[in-house]
Structures are given as C-alpha cells and as structure tokens.
Amino acid sequence: MADQSNILNEMNDRSREVFRRVVEGYLESGAPVGSRTLTRSLSEQVSAATVRNVMQDLEYLGLLGSPHISAGRVPTQLGLRMFVDGLLEVGDLTDEDRGKIDATLGGNSEDVTTMLDRIGSALSGVTHGASLVLVPKHEAPIKHIEFVSLSPDQALVVLVFGDGHVENRLFQPPPGQTPNSMREAANFLNALAAGKTLRTLRSVMETEIKARRQEIDSLARGLIESGLAIWENEGDRTERLIVRGRSHLLDTAPENDDLDRIRTLFDDLERKRDIAEFLELTEGGEGVRIFIGSENKLFSLSGSSLVVSPYMNADRKIVGAVGVIGPTRLNYGRIVPIVDYTAQLVGKLISDRG
C-alpha cells in the first residue's frame, strides 16, 4: 500500500486527473477510454497527443492496460486498487436505496435467518450484484458438525451447539468433494471442535494447517529427492506435486500409498485454508473492505470484486458480515455506502433482539 501511495503522491495534477477519469469512465461504461474522449472532458485544455503520452506513462507504471492495439485504456487491478484507496469519492446513500432496504424488514415474529435472507435479497436487488450475508456467530461450544451434499456445487453444514442451538448454512464446497470426503471432513472436525466455540476453532484450524503442511513436506521429500516428483508453484495456494516422467498431476498419478496420502493432505489443507479465510473475513475489523480481482481469494473468482462489511452485536463484537460480489467495474462509490448502511442496520437489529 505504501508504494501505491507514493505513486499517487508523485503524480502531477494532469496525470492524476487522467488516471481518475480513465477509471471512472471504465467503471461507468465497462469500455476502454480513449485519449480523444478524455481531451473533451479534462479541466485543462491539452492535445490528444499529450493525453496519450500521459496514458502511456500510467501504463508503464502498471496502472492502465490496453486490451486491444487500437483501443483506449482500462485500469489494471493495481490501478483499481490505487483508485479505490486514494481517489474514490464515496457518495451518500440515496433515499431510494435506503427505502428499498428498509422495506424488507419484517416484524418481530421473524427469526434471524429469515430476516437476513430478506435483507440479502434486498441488497442483491438494489446493487444488481450477488449478496453475501454471514449470519451471526454463535459463541456456545460446538457439540456436532455435519456436512450434507446437495449437489456437486452446493452443500449444507449443520452446526449443533452445546446449548441446543442448531444452525443450517448453505455453502459451495471446494471442487471435487464427494459425500464420502465430506463425511471424513466432518469426522475430523468433530474430533477437533467438540467443546470449542467457533472463535476458538479458528486458532485450532491454523495449527492444523501448519501441521498438514509439514506432513506433506515430510512425505514428499523422499519422492522429490529421488527425482520421481517435483513441486509446481511451490508455496502458492495452487501448488501441486507432479510425478516426473508422466507429466500428470497428483490427481491422475498411478496408485501409490504415499501419493494417495499426499493427495488427501492437499485436499485437507485447501479445505482448512478456505475455512480459515472465511473466519478471518468476519473478524477482520470494522468498516467496509474492498477485495479486487485476485485479492478476492475467498471465492476464487477472477475478474470479480467483493465489497464487504462486518456487523456487531450490542457488545460491539463482530458477529457476522454482509457484502456484495460483482465484476471489478462495480460502482464502488454507490455500493460502499449501501453495504455500510446494511451492515449497521443488521447490527442494530441483532442487538435489539439480544
């Protein structure tokens, strides 16, 4: 962030205005912005050639890109990040948007899940994006966890707490999961989670991630030293073990006890990383946060952005989150106050219900 801030501070007024107008034009239209278009809207009267030179400089800095040889420029992910952090002008929530969100509030007879479903639908409708609503975290000790596969891309997790509270949550499982692998995952988590709250379970998950990483390294070391296998993208989330001489990923390698064990550990490691990131998101601090493009690791959706804000209970503890997922060219100036208002509204409703 410091480097981005320095780049922005070192820009002259002309470069900063060209950069801002390119990003704003792209966010509005989704199309590349050309020098001639900018020349007509700049506060300073300059030639199209001068504007092109400025845009080339911004492209050299990695802030703009050219999708086609003869087209204008669009912001890169770095450019969008810098714009959002340093130049974004957040508007006020309009009465129309506020009214649409407020209109979904039901009576006191509604349970929390129904209420949040209605608010999530309203948030999606107002922003024309996909909404994210993470329900309040229950702080009682966990008694049992169960995963139920509903389809290849949808599953249900049932959380049973020691005080008798039960929560059912839909989620999208990591690719390749089967009912059997989900049962194994549930058995493993139950052995860890019994008597622990979700908050405590997060630190346990972090410990397990480290243990799995060490176990993979230990098992794979012999294969690598013997030249039978190599790492691909070592250290990345997408790292895999490739069997040398066969050019097959681990998932398509021949049957081998060590390879089967490593494959299981990789799947387990990835599942734990996903869960840990989800928990981290809800405990990441107050205020609206924006994840752009590949920063949006929670959903692994390239070309998407996530605008999210946690909400708090009466004790000022973060208990959940609401957000909007959409293309990187979201209207951030409008979406941010909508998400912020919705998070505050949900927090107040949760606090009023105790």
3D architecture notes:
Belongs to the HrcA family. Keywords: Repressor, Stress response, Transcription, Transcription regulation. Residues 115-336 form the Heat-inducible transcription repressor HrcA C-terminal domain. The chain is an alpha+beta fold and 354 residues long. The protein has 11 helices and 12 strands. It has helices at 2-10, 13-29, 35-41, 48-60, 77-86, 95-102, 112-127, 179-193, 198-225, 257-282, 332-352, and strands spanning 64-65, 74-75, 130-134, 142-151, 154-161, 166-171, 229-232, 240-243, 248-249, 289-292, 304-312, 318-327. Strand 7 (229-232) and strand 8 form a beta hairpin. The chain is globular, with a radius of gyration of 24 Å. Residues 244-254 have low confidence and may be disordered.
Give the gist of this structure.
Residues 115-336 form the Heat-inducible transcription repressor HrcA C-terminal domain. With 354 residues, the protein is of the alpha+beta class.
